[in-house]
UniProtKB/TrEMBL annotation:
Its EC number is 2.1.-.-. Keywords: Methyltransferase, Transferase. It is an enzyme of class 2 (transferase). The lineage of its organism: Bacteria, Bacillati, Chloroflexota, Anaerolineae, Anaerolineales. This is Class I SAM-dependent methyltransferase. One of its GO terms (biological process) is methylation. It comes from the Bacteria. SUPFAM superfamilies: S-adenosyl-L-methionine-dependent methyltransferases.
Length: 251
């Protein structure tokens, strides 16, 4: 993918979450079943990295389950991070010190400076990779993640399987709507709209870039980034198939 196309798609998603971030988060005030399936298996004394932490739902779960490790949550949305930090500020001091939230744009290589050379034993990337345009860019992101993981560390990720929902498929939009030639994109790249209306207000529509992954594509991405796939399963939403999850081991 040409750098200028990737940049345009990243800017599109940035604009979406700046405009609709809090409203979008309000529709996701609980952890998805697939996330809840995995979290109890992970060590609560480890160093955790949560990529795309949003308003801190994973951190809240950890705080409720005797978390004894250290947690770093990264997100590019100041509004969502402010919400996460406001929650952390009301924790007992001994617990609050275990949680840190920082702003970082995972679509740009300099996001890694937010890690301060820390190393982690657990990394999470829920609903993140499908918003990173271009195979090369996704590989670069994962190589940087791998460089900050201990050998044998666990990375758990999920991607959106909107193709399993007729309702979501109906929200696909033509690329001409934002002035992009489909020939400049990669297979699976999709433009979706999202609609939101407050009481007594007219509906507002936003557009997002989403990449549709196959299992084979995720498997190959793991290998090329220094991981081994240990588990794959579907969960969440309509029919329990809107999320594709994988558990990777750093090798």
């Amino acid at each position: 993918m040409k750098p200028e196309i990737a940049a345009k798609l990243l800017a599109l998603n940035a604009q979406f979450y700046q405009t609709f971030g809090l409203a979008f988060a309000a529709t996701r005030q609980r952890l998805q079943p697939g996330i809840l399936r995995v979290l109890p298996r992970l060590p609560l004394t480890a160093q955790w990295l949560d990529l795309g932490c949003a308003h801190g739902e994973v951190a809240r779960w950890l705080a409720q389950h005797q978390f004894q490790g250290r947690y770093l949550g990264l997100d590019f949305s100041p509004a969502l991070l402010a919400e996460a930090q406001a929650w952390a500020d009301h924790l007992p001091p001994a617990l609050a010190t275990r949680f840190t939230f920082r702003q970082a744009d995972l679509g740009h290589p300099d996001w890694v400076t937010a890690l301060d050379d820390a190393r982690f034993e657990v990394a999470l990337a829920f609903a993140v990779l499908h918003h990173i345009p271009g195979r090369v860019n996704r590989e670069r992101l994962l190589h940087l993640v791998r460089a900050h993981l201990e050998p044998g560390a666990t990375l758990v990720l999920s991607v959106w399987q909107f193709q399993h929902s007729p309702r979501l498929l109906a929200r696909r939009q033509p690329w001409a709507r934002i002035g992009i030639d489909e020939a400049d994109l990669e297979p699976g790249d999709t433009l979706l709209d999202w609609r939101h209306a407050l009481p007594d207000q007219s509906e507002k529509v936003g557009l997002r870039y989403v990449h549709q992954f196959s299992r084979e594509e995720l498997d190959a991405l793991a290998v090329s980034s220094g991981f081994r796939v240990e588990e794959t399963f579907e969960s969440d939403g309509e029919g329990g198939r809107l999320g594709l999850y994988q558990v990777w081991r750093a090798v």
